[in-house]
Structures are given as structure tokens and as C-alpha cells.
Specification:
By secondary structure, the chain is α+β, with helices and mostly antiparallel strands. The longest helix has 24 residues. Helix content is 43%, strand content 19%.
């Protein structure tokens, strides 16, 4: 299949979903110009992604939007894509930010994702690719090594030490209820 056909199919799917969501989009109290800007940004991200996907003959991910909940780490994360080859595993995190810079927050997220994947699948990923979709560039790899894994463990321990309550009410939901059922039981079996 040619890049032109792939792009056209992606844009057709996008336009169909955009139109289906028009009423919801209009209820956001955004100006017409703001909505058009988000529309154009979204199209650009799809075009950049399709170019990268086609150029690299990228395989379809083995896992996508993978939620990993670890009672052992007392941590949950959603990994955008996982590519598994016999000799390596690559985790992918798609970013829609305007600035293609790997920040400290992104480094922390990569460390935690690697720990989650290792905890569940007993295999350390080779890297976490950070794919800035607003840029036509290839993903930027964050290679996973013992130093980064240890950093992630220290982060988890630090947060656990500062956690003063196991009461769910101490941590109000900010996701609209999508986290329901994701709370990890404490040692006493209570939420």
C-alpha cells in the first residue's frame, strides 16, 4: 500500500470521527479558530506518524494502550505501544507537545514504564521511544539501563514514604472515574 493511500485513509477516518464529535467539540467553549487549530494539529500528527510508519516499515505493535497495574510496585501506567521482537522489547510513548524535548518528567515516566513492564513480563525493555507526533522526526530513544531502573525504584520508594494515608478519599479522582477499580489494596485488604 502506498504512503498516499495510507495517509488518505487515515485522514478520512479522522474526518469522520471529527464530524461525529462536532457537537462535543462545540460544547468546549473554544473559539472557531481554536477548534480549527486543534483540527490542523491533529492532521499534522497523523501525517507525521504515517510518514514515519511507512518510511520505517514499522510493524503493528504487539500491544497498544496497555494498562499495567503492579501490586508489587504499587503503581499503574498505560503504555501507548509495545513492540516485541525475539531479541528486544521497545516501549513507545506518543507525545503531542509542541516542543520535542525529553524532559526530566519524560525520563521519570520512561523509568516507571520500564519497571512496570519488567514487573509484569519479567523482561527489561531495551528502550522507551518518545515519539513527538508534531515533528516529522523519528522517535527519540531513552535506553533502559540499571541506573535508570534504580532511579525509578528510588522514585517509587520516595513517593511511598511520603504517602500518609491509604484512604481513597485522601486522593480525589481527577480522571472522571476512569480509575475506578484500579486502586491497589493495602496490606490489610482495604482500599
Amino acid at each position: 500500500m502506498s504512503l498516499k493511500i495510507i495517509r488518505q485513509e487515515l485522514l478520512d477516518i479522522f474526518e469522520r470521527h471529527w464530524e461525529e464529535a462536532r457537537e462535543s467539540l462545540n460544547s468546549l467553549w473554544l473559539t472557531k479558530e481554536e477548534i480549527e487549530s486543534y483540527h490542523d494539529d491533529s492532521q499534522l500528527m497523523l501525517l507525521n506518524f504515517s510518514h514515519w510508519f511507512y518510511k520505517n516499515n514499522t510493524p503493528i505493535p504487539d500491544l497498544s494502550e496497555t494498562k499495567i497495574v503492579s501490586k508489587n510496585l504499587r503503581l499503574m501506567g498505560i503504555i501507548d505501544a509495545v513492540h516485541e521482537w525475539p531479541d528486544r522489547v521497545i516501549l513507545v510513548d506518543y507525545k503531542t507537545s509542541k516542543y520535542p524535548t525529553i524532559t526530566n518528567d519524560i525520563q521519570r515516566q520512561a523509568a516507571l514504564y520500564a519497571l512496570l513492564y519488567q514487573d509484569k513480563y519479567k523482561k527489561v525493555p531495551e528502550a522507551v521511544w518518545i515519539h513527538f507526533l508534531k515533528m516529522p522526526d523519528d522517535p527519540q530513544p531513552i535506553y533502559i539501563d540499571d541506573e535508570l531502573l534504580n532511579y525509578g525504584k528510588i522514585l517509587i520508594e520516595s513517593v511511598a514514604e511520603k504517602t500518609t494515608s491509604y484512604d481513597e478519599q485522601s486522593y480525589p479522582c481527577t480522571c472522571g472515574g476512569y480509575c475506578e477499580g484500579d486502586f491497589i489494596l493495602n496490606e490489610n485488604g482495604a482500599d
